[in-house]
Every structure is written in structure tokens, then in C-alpha cells.
């Protein structure tokens, strides 16, 4: 990548989706504490299953930092009622992130409504939804971190496909907005370096995993860092050159790794965090 590599990655954080098939949030909290992993990033389904207050207390008692809450977004809908419901759900997500003391609320913004081919319209719904929640997010002190997703997910998961698009929205939204960079989704972008430099202090989260060759499932076949073709240390150096000193969050969506023993996965993540991140 051409940039100097930092001596070691930032503190490790476990995104709970990495072990979602075998551990709930309570087990993830205990596992992070037992393995010496200082950060955690819950998904809202496991957070709600445990209970927000109970989870927040357990995370504090374990001495863990919350690198992010996954996820808000999913704004596009087929009708006004669906769009209003999405905005209300995002307001609940802001309250949950505040209760956890999360560094940010990660936004997976949503794809095309069922049956729609109106890409511009879906992007307008995302823009409108974000504007609708920003005042509440700023009042709660919750950073809204827009996560651009790989273009392969544009139809069903996110019409926000590039870092440049995310930063254009941040320019509109102003204070309290930022970006979540997941190497899986941005590594391919020829404008990545320029985008990272433009993002500057607005980088709110840094997610790592790897792109396997071949990839047999475009959503659920991520690799652990070092298993694939992404230059994770090179991207990290670019991010840290902008002053990012937050967690290196491992987020693995993989049926192969979900079938493994979670304790073994965490041990492997720790080794790879030291050598491949």
C-alpha cells in the first residue's frame, strides 16, 4: 500500500456475530474477559435477548469497551409506514448504543425495497432517514457510523456502496456522523486511499476479516485475518495515519467458523490479530 506499517494493531474487539451460532451475548462477554480481549461489539439481536441494562452492567463489570453497536439503518421501505417504522427502530438503536457507552452505532443502510428497481429512490430514503435521526443521536452523544458495503450487496443490504458515498452523506449530516471501515467491503476500491484521507478524524470504527479466493458465499464466507487476499496491515496503516487509535474489530460472517468451537476461534483471532492485522 506504500504507507508505513504501525508496530502493532490497536486493541482487539470481538464482534459478536463471529461466534453467533454457539454463544449468546453473556457467553461473548465472559469469553472476551477470559481470553483477554478488551473490546466487544454486540449485534442488537443478542443485546435485546440478554436485555440492554443487564448487558451494559455485565460489560462494565467485565471491564470491556464497546467498540460499536451493530446495527442501525435499513431505511428503505415500500411505503411511508415502513419508512417511519425504520426511523423509530433507529431511535431505539441510538438509545441502546447510549446505554452501552458504544463508540458508535454502525449503520447498514438498507437495499432496494421488495419489488423495486428505483436505486435513486432507495438512496433518497437512506438520506432522509439519516437526517431524521441525527439530532437525537447528537443529543445522546452517539456517533452515527455509516458503513459502505461491497457493491454485491446493493440490492438487498446497502445502497451505500463506496466510502466516497458515505463521506458525501457525512458532509451533509455534519457533527456526530462518521464512517465504519470494514476491509471486506472497501479493499477493492481504487479510490480507497483518497477516501481514507478525506475521512480523516471521521473514521469511527475499523473492522477486519479476509476475502477468500474462491469465495463460495458472498455474505457468509469471510475468512479470518490472514486467510485471504486483503492487505489488512496496509489498510490499517492508512487508517492510523489519519489518527485512528480505536479498536481493531474482528467481524467474521462465516458458516465454516460458526461451526467451530468459539474458544478456539477466539484463540485463533488473538494470534491473527498479532500477526495478520
TrEMBL record:
<keyword id="KW-0413">Isomerase</keyword>
<protein>
    <submittedName>
        <fullName>Sugar phosphate isomerase/epimerase</fullName>
    </submittedName>
</protein>
<dbReference type="InterPro" id="IPR050312">
    <property type="entry name" value="IolE/XylAMocC-like"/>
</dbReference>
<feature type="domain" description="Xylose isomerase-like TIM barrel">
    <location>
        <begin position="32"/>
        <end position="268"/>
    </location>
</feature>
<dbReference type="InterPro" id="IPR013022">
    <property type="entry name" value="Xyl_isomerase-like_TIM-brl"/>
</dbReference>
<dbReference type="Pfam" id="PF01261">
    <property type="entry name" value="AP_endonuc_2"/>
</dbReference>
<dbReference type="InterPro" id="IPR036237">
    <property type="entry name" value="Xyl_isomerase-like_sf"/>
</dbReference>
<dbReference type="GO" id="GO:0016853">
    <property type="term" value="F:isomerase activity"/>
</dbReference>
Amino acid at each position: 500500500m506504500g504507507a508505513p506499517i504501525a508496530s502493532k494493531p490497536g486493541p482487539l474487539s470481538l464482534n459478536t456475530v463471529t461466534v453467533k451460532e454457539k454463544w449468546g451475548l453473556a457467553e461473548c462477554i465472559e469469553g472476551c474477559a477470559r481470553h483477554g480481549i478488551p473490546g466487544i461489539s454486540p449485534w442488537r439481536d443478542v443485546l435485546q435477548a440478554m436485555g440492554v441494562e443487564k448487558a451494559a452492567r455485565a460489560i462494565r463489570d467485565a471491564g470491556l469497551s464497546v467498540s460499536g453497536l451493530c446495527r442501525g439503518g435499513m431505511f428503505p421501505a415500500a411505503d411511508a409506514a415502513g419508512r417511519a417504522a425504520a426511523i423509530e427502530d433507529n431511535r431505539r438503536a441510538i438509545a441502546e448504543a447510549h446505554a452501552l457507552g458504544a463508540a458508535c452505532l454502525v449503520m447498514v443502510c438498507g437495499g432496494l425495497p421488495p419489488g423495486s428497481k428505483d436505486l435513486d429512490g432507495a438512496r433518497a430514503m437512506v438520506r432522509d432517514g439519516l437526517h431524521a435521526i441525527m439530532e437525537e443521536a447528537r443529543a445522546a452523544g452517539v456517533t452515527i457510523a455509516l458503513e459502505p458495503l461491497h457493491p454485491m450487496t446493493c440490492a438487498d443490504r446497502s445502497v451505500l456502496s463506496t466510502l466516497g458515498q458515505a463521506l458525501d452523506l457525512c458532509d451533509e449530516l455534519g457533527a456526530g456522523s462518521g464512517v465504519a471501515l470494514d476491509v471486506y467491503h472497501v479493499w477493492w476500491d481504487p479510490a480507497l486511499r483518497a477516501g481514507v484521507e478525506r475521512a480523516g478524524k471521521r473514521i469511527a470504527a475499523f473492522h477486519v476479516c479476509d476475502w477468500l479466493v474462491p469465495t463460495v458465499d458472498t455474505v457468509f464466507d469471510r475468512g479470518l485475518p490472514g486467510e485471504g487476499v486483503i492487505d489488512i496491515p496496509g489498510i490499517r496503516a492508512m487508517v492510523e495515519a489519519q489518527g485512528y487509535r480505536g479498536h481493531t474489530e474482528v467481524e467474521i460472517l462465516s458458516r465454516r467458523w460458526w461451526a467451530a468451537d468459539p474458544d478456539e476461534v477466539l484463540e485463533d483471532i488473538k494470534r491473527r490479530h498479532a500477526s495478520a492485522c
